[in-house]
Amino acid sequence: MAIQKIQDCNWEEILNIQEEAYQQIGSEELNILKNKQEYSPSTCLVSVSKTNEVQGYLLAHPWLGKEPPKLFQALPRIYEYDCLYLHDMAVSSRFRGLGVGTNLISHLFSIAKHRQMKRIALVAVQGSSSFWANNGFEVVTGIIVDASYGNGAVLMEIVLP
To answer: PROSITE patterns per the record (predicted)?
Structure first.
């Protein structure tokens, strides 16, 4: 498995993985996903197999403040930021249990450290907070996330060394 930046040829597989993964909250449109990549191409990644099949993907971008961006909307232009926001990560059911998600997260941590980012934030959806906690993320209290993230969604972050 290899981690690389998202290429145009990856989007169809990304959309299929997203549709499979987010049945409770729904899928975002392609133009919204591409907006994240255009905003920060070096932090929008795919894990590909030896046969170049997309196993999973991760979309992250710079962000300012604790309140997360809304789902289903393009990002506003920001010129200052204090963290990386991990917008979305999903792994194809065919490749779960192989460490794809962990490898994508590890790669993002390396990028964040190289950029001297102090933290990575995300919203855990569909009961995924235990997965994120196992990867070092902690729940941020006092912030109510937008209803578009679905019931039980929680803001989480990891402070980087």
So the answer is: GNAT
